[in-house]
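Shipment paperwork, digital attachment
Item: protein structure file
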Amino acid sequence: MTYHPKSDFMAVMMQRGFLADCTDYQGLDEALSKGVVPGYIGFDATAKSLHVGSLIQIMTLRWLQKTGHKPITLMGGGTTKVGDPSFRADERPLLTPAQIDDNIAGIKKVFSAYIDYSDSPTGALMLNNAEWLDTLNYLDFLRDIGRHFSVNRMLSFESVKSRLDREQSLSFLEFNYMILQAYDFLELNRRYGCLVQFGGSDQWGNIVNGIDLTRRVLDNQIFGLTTHLLTTSDGKKMGKTADGAVWLNADMKSPYEFWQFWRNTTDADTGRFLKLYTELPVDECNRLGALQGSEINAAKIILANEVTTLLHGVEAAAAAEATAREVFEKGGVGDDLPTLMLAADEVAEGISLAQLVVRSGLAKTGKDGKRLIGEGGLKVNDETCTDAGRMFSAADLASPVKLSAGKKRHALVQIG
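Attachment content:
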């Protein structure tokens, strides 16, 4: 890609490795260099928190605002009722309106850490597409909007085609999703002058549909820009670990666990993640990412501190680093480790080590816990224990007991 951008935002997208594709590089760059450009990303409310996989989108909106433009965070109160079928093997479970509202309340918490929602010209907007989707008249919508969509073209989009090629069912409900997302873009352009939609590269077809619809209905030119769908260097989907999703909300993933996720980044990913998930200068990111041997660990600590500071604040990042040092370097307990608090009556007759391992989140099932213990992978207060049936009484848990699965995963257990 040899295009040399005029606007600060496009330069950031290209230099830091965000940019996957754009519908019109020059046209969007011209618009960005002329004045304040509103741009949006939609977030469907499928869980009570977003996870690390959404962080590249949130950072895109943060950079949009930092370079003088107006972010729009669109909550999918309406589209979540349908479910995005893009590249999925099966239909998403349908959520009730109450579940969707509850999820939106949880998701909203994270954005103010990254984006300013003030009344300034570049102050962000928080919107919900239920505002216009919930009141649509079906026949009017079919006649006014549906007539602009070619089923032949919709079937050709890779997100749909891959599902059909595998002979996996695609419901009519899901098939409507791309029309509703396109309509979101049209409404945001009509109501707020929104000029660009951002999304992961799997959203390309949906974004192009919105651009085409807006041109047909309003005769307005708008743009789409996609970011890379991130996988780690070992091919794993970003934001997923053996223990499940790395959530952004502190009540679902503690700041210490979040910090630890970034500290455990592989050597090969460190420089790339510094550019995407921190605001350190690009040259510094490249320098840190090129460190070799044990020196790269210092870069990973910088990465963990910078990313955790953005989300949870500088004090939480410092506490997480201090806990990590206490646990790893000094063999201590650490004040900020994930803690399982048990009621006295839960251990009145004792509780086994295998149960504690599952209850503390160090194993998903009793079978996994017994295997971990039996293979010598678990330590109790820094001493290996291979007896899954070892019992702990209330007296044993009166002071914190430290459980360690391998070198990197720890938890405390005590009577609350």
